[in-house]
Amino acid sequence: MKIMNPAKRYDKFSKIYDIFESPMEMMAFSKYRKKALSLVKGKVLEIGVGTGKNLLYYPPDVEVVGIDFSSGMLEKAEEKRKELGLKNVKLLLMDTQNMEFDDNTFDTVVSTFVFCTVPDPVKGLKEAYRVLKPGGRTIFLEHMKSQSKLLNVPLYLMEPFIKTLLGTSLLRETQKNIEKAGFKIEKVENLFFDIVRLIVATK
């Protein structure tokens, strides 16, 4: 069976992506996003901007560059950017694993529910580390494998479906991957047990 290119998969899914995720957004994710985005400052890079769900929550005094590897998702994000009248946001087609920015470019790097999908998460995280300024801060809002075997049971059950649909894994150990990439973790807040975590790390 031929495996679809991840970007092409998201291009196809972009038209219904927000509808698909709307129950989770209404129940909790929008609240989590607002909390995470309140922590950004300066020149901000958002990795995996997707359909632009975070754009509503950025403070007005920051400069945002949002990247995504899916042109379909970026089209949706651009529509939101225009609707919100955001002139401090720039959107670019770019792969997180091979970013075109210079070293030490951004004050803050943000990812929300992204590193469950990046094909080589440690490579992507090392790129995030590279483009972050020394002393800069990364804000990770991610879902990942729990330390509880019981809590992992539903994740294992959902894994085949979600991986086939979006190429996403619910069982990655993202906190460990963040450390492998060289970041120093300053704070971890469990938002939904320890499956969804808000992680603040520095370079």
TrEMBL record:
Alphabetized InterPro entries for the sequence: Methyltransf_11, SAM-dependent_MTases_sf, Thiol_S-MT
Pfam name, any one: Methyltransf_11
UniProt xrefs under CDD domains: AdoMet_MTases
Keyword vocabulary terms for this entry: Methyltransferase, Transferase, Ubiquinone
Molecular function GO terms recorded: S-adenosylmethionine-dependent methyltransferase activity
Residue intervals of the Methyltransferase type domain: 45-140
Any GO BP: methylation
UniProt protein name: Ubiquinone/menaquinone biosynthesis methyltransferase
Organism: Thermococcus sibiricus (strain DSM 12597 / MM 739)
